[in-house]
Structure formats: structure tokens, C-alpha cells
């Protein structure tokens, strides 16, 4: 008979996932990523900790010594990047994402007033949730992350008919269109939309995302590319802006996103 005498049950019963999460506190993660400049650090912290009342004064103060674009890109956007990291690590959730985004937007509105001609956008993305699908949380998070990364977004909302998506893409001429589906009965809208766009001579990446979608499905139709989670959307957009087409995005997907 095997004896259990001397067995250290602490090692067996420890929830190492919880232990790791506790060790990776928001404060520790933020400290590694925050700007070194005191003024920019203060700006970034208002976003990370969702301080609505403090972001205005902090941004105004930083503008006394920093260029407006630096306040945005090296302060406010860095703060949102930290929030994205906390979200990816399951420390922050949707409420924190949305509150931090609102904080960032307040600061950006103040800084943009100091930029002659306004802030230049990296590019335009059209976003929607598939026809018949009412679930838009994932799309909302991805939209926040795209905006915080410098992109303009046309958010068409949820349950958007295929023909409306096609019409908006033709009209707006974005660098990418994204669709989200959480129901297997609605994800077929994406290849139908892509086919109609192709017939109109539109050949841009069509990002398919959401709980119902996997990479095999997203790459089963022309133009289709995949995003497994919201934080992958901005780096994919950056590659498209740099000249990548949908075929090259597919070929280098693991490298671009860090894999599944």
C-alpha cells in the first residue's frame, strides 16, 4: 500500500493560474509599460486607472512641455495599450475597457485642439456584426482598440444586412472591413458579403471574428482573414496599412498576432 506520509499537498492543491494572476497585479504590469517622462506618465495613468476627472488637468499640464501628438501617442495611447494588456491577461474586463477608452477620448479631444489641421488618422476601418446577430461586445472592444491605435472607425452596429455592409464599404473605401458573429447561423453572412464585394472589384481584407468563427472558416473565402481576439486587430491593421494584402496576412498570421 502506498503511503501518503510526508506528501506536500500544498503543491497539489495550489491553483497556479490564480497564483500567477495575483503575482501579475495591474500595478506591476503598468509600472513596466508606463512612460518615464513624469507628465506623460501622469497622463497614461489617468487612462489605466480610469480617472475621468483627472485626465483633463493632466493632459493640459503635459501640453505645456510636450507636443500634442506626443501627449496622445506617448501618453494617452500608451495608457490604453496597458489597458489592452490587462484585458488580454484577464485582469480587466469589458467595463474597464470602455471606461478607460472614454477617459482616453477626453484627453485626445483636448490634445487635438492644439494640433493644426487636426490629428491625422492611420486609416479607416468599417466594422459590423453579422446580419441576424445581436452580440456586439467583441466588436465594441475591437473598435476601442483600433481607435486608440490611431485608426478611424465606421461602426455600423449589430445585425447589419449584407447589402448595407457592401454599400458602406464601396462608399467609404476603407483599408479593411471587419465582421463579428457569435452565432453559427449568422457567420455565413461574411462569405456572401465578400463575394458581393469581389463582384464590385473590391479586394480588401475582410476580417471575420467572434465566438462562432475560427481561422479555417475565415480563410475559406476570398478576402477572409481571422482575428481570434480583439487585441490582434490593431497589429493586423498596421500590416494592411503597410501594404499587406489578405493573402500575405494569412501567410504571416502567426507571426503578426503571436499565434493562437
From TrEMBL:
GO CC, one annotated term: cytosol
Designated gene of the protein: mtaC
Domain B12-binding: 122-247
Limits of the B12-binding N-terminal domain: 30-123
Protein name: MtaC protein
SMART domains associated with the record: B12-binding_2 (SM01018)
PROSITE patterns referenced in this protein's UniProt entry, alphabetically: B12_BINDING (PS51332), B12_BINDING_NTER (PS51337)
Matching Gene3D superfamilies: Cobalamin-binding domain, Methionine synthase domain
GO MF annotation terms: cobalamin binding; metal ion binding; methionine synthase activity
Domain of life: Archaea
InterPro entries: Cbl-bd_cap, Cobalamin-bd, Cobalamin-bd_sf, Met_Synthase/Corrinoid, Meth_synthase_dom
Organism whose genome encodes this protein: Candidatus Methanoplasma termitum
